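Report of the visiting student (M.T.), summer placement. My assignment was to run the structure pipeline on a short list of targets and document each run. The first record concerns Sentrin-specific protease 5-like.
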Amino acid sequence: YMKYGSFIPLSETDVLEYLKKNGNSDLSKRGLDIKGEMTRYRSGLASAPIAGFMVTYNKHNLGLEDLGTLEEQNWLNDQIINMYGELIMEATQQKVHFFNSFFHKQLVAKGYDGVKRWTKKVDLFSKWLLLIPIHLEIHWSLVTVTMATKTISYYDSQGIVFRHTTDNIMKYLLSEAREKEQAAFQKGWKITIIKVKLNPVVILMLDYCRRLSVKQPLLFSQEDMPRIRKRIYKELCDCRLND
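After the run finished, the structure tokens were exported:
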């Protein structure tokens, strides 16, 4: 509770493993109602959250209000999304670039000149993968860019092809290539559309980012969403991606 600020990321198995590690016997064989004890303990602490609980990483600060968006079916906020993107970049030794969740909105509103400074100190063309969260009103999707094959991939749960979105990203990459004098990237781009089936989309989007960045297969189901939420919560508090 002190480590994570709440019980949101903890399961009965987590508690049993902790008690076993710090005790002298296997408590799971004693017939204890661990889940019941957790529920009672959580209820007792609900009115007294840890004052000032904060996770700090680089320029990111997450409080319990931010982390609480990972509970049940809540929508994640931008602070969660952007810090998790930083963890992905760190885990890949900066070989993957994760764009801030406000990037696409700024690109649409102000064009290339409005976002040119965002990559002033970043060489996108040395990365193997770019991850670009797309927020269209209440709908999230994901654009990835595989630099080696010059492929722009659009992941969307509704199967809707927002062609203007992929066109905007292509125009951005062409402008960035001209700005950074990368002749090889000024032509030859292709676009693929990939329909995904899970909800809530924002959790799916973050997990896809994680899996794609470390080259893990996209094999999971709707039933995995609670576990994925708990894992993301723990990783944010630990300030690193866990194996």
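The first helix runs from residue 12 to 22. Helices lie at 12-22, 34-46, 64-67, 78-91, 103-115, 163-179, 201-213, 225-238. I thank the supervising group for their guidance throughout the placement.
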